[in-house]
Amino acid sequence: MTVIIAIWEVISKLQLFPTFMFPPLIIPNDPGGVTVMKTLVDGIISGQILEATGITLGRLLIGFFIAVVLGLTFGFLIARYKWVDDTLGFFVTALQSIPSIVWFPLAIVWFGLGNVAILFIVAIGATWTMTVNSSAGFKNVPSIYIDAARTLGASGPHLLRTVIIPASVPHIISGLRVAWAFAWRAIMAGELLGASGGLGYLLDLGRSIQAMDLVLSIMIVIGIIGTIIDSQVFLRMERSVARRWGLRT
Amino acid sequence: MKVDLNKVNKSYTKGKNDSLHVLEDIDFSIKEGEFVSLLGPSGCGKSTILKLIAGLSHPTSGDLKVNGTPVEGPGTDRVVVFQEGGLFPWMTVLENVTYGLKIKKMKRVEAEEKAMEGLRMVHLANFTNAYPHELSGGMKQRVAIARALVMDPDVLLMDEPFAALDEQTRLILHQELQDIWQKTGKTILFITHNIREALTLSDRVLLMSTRPGTIKQTFNVQASRPRNPSDSIIVDLEKRVMAELEEEMNKVLKEEFGDDYRYKTDSVRDRDNSDMGSHI
Lengths: 249, 280
Ligand SMILES: Nc1ncnc2c1ncn2[C@@H]1O[C@H](COP(=O)(O)OP(=O)(O)O)[C@@H](O)[C@H]1O
Ligand SMILES: [Mg+2]
Prior knowledge:
Chain A is mainly α.
């Protein structure tokens, strides 16, 4: 890490490229000049970066939530009904391989350039992988749990709620984690291409005013947020389920 | 009769016009309070019979009655203890044991009291908040037994509940199961592929043969209780069951390895553990 930072600083100081293209990270090239660190700190203090982060996370959560609800529903239907598996199940595998940004032209025509179009590509980017994982989870519920529950009097929605869903939890959680990663990529692409506000928009702004210090500081923010959410939320969830179930120690 | 099977047949369809005839004309009944074992090699259809009685699967033909009424689906008058892994891993011991009681709409306090009573019966009252993976194999099976007992079923169905346990634990659980049976007077159908286990526990042993599964012979075990596996009546019966089985084993092995294979007649007798093959 330090080595990479040091190499970056040296290249920047050699002035092989203009400073705006290759800004230093920490130590300014001329007194009072730009550094990525300074832009980042200023951006946070002025609220510009925080506000953009808030907007992005807000969109992400809504889109992700829609994807999870749809993914669980489709996953359940695919696992439950053979004909849904033969139709939608087959189709989902194909849909899953389409990068979500490919939907963008359609989204713009359908919803106009704005929030709805962004939410659409975030949701569609995460829905299919969530569907695949949750249907795998529902399909692989060991029949012994279902048999045991039925002989103890469970049936219908109660069986679904108390046995089938909890038994699918390990699959569902890994589905959430992957779906989140897809949603995160989708929102960056979407915001970069056409949105007002958000981290992706700031990236595009940085490009248009040729301020790579801004672009780099946003990239740092994106990397940090992505890592924190993955390790603090999803990895933790996965571990606590694994621990409780005794899957790993 | 508590449980009554009359010419029960079961086939599974595999593929378009191919079917596997698993059970052929199964005829037997179990009296109230009786302890009956189904004994047979893996794959002979023991679990299939149990699932039919539990209502988890339906006969292709024949009559199947419990308490005089035809079985149509699962019911809490017939609870199953499975071989292993039947507990819900996401629930604590107490949650597992109260699961069925809560479905019966029993109040929480009452359900927990009843669960504790059941757990005391299997000597696990101190493990209420443990998760199944924290328990040994023997403890898990005790919880499964408690979970079934608290439902106060008319018939307790047990599908090789001790097959995955080590010999010592199994002997202890045999003792406990006999105690429980004597205390509660439950009607029990116990499935096993272990000859000694069947003879030690049961009033009656139904020996099955395979492909298709039929009941080949019935042995009444008139040894006194509590049972002692070295009781001469049991030892004697064990020899008779073995003799019956040799024939059966030859049949199975011939199918698996071809006609030139003959199982050495004595080798079955020499084994000290009277197991009938793979632990499935
Ligand atoms: N759901 C099923 N579909 C098709 N075949 C089955 C099914 N369940 C069991 N069988 C077959 O029926 C036979 C008897 O199985 P089972 O009753 O589990 O035997 P056992 O409990 O005596 O070992 C086996 O050959 C098995 O492959
Ligand atoms: Mg079986």
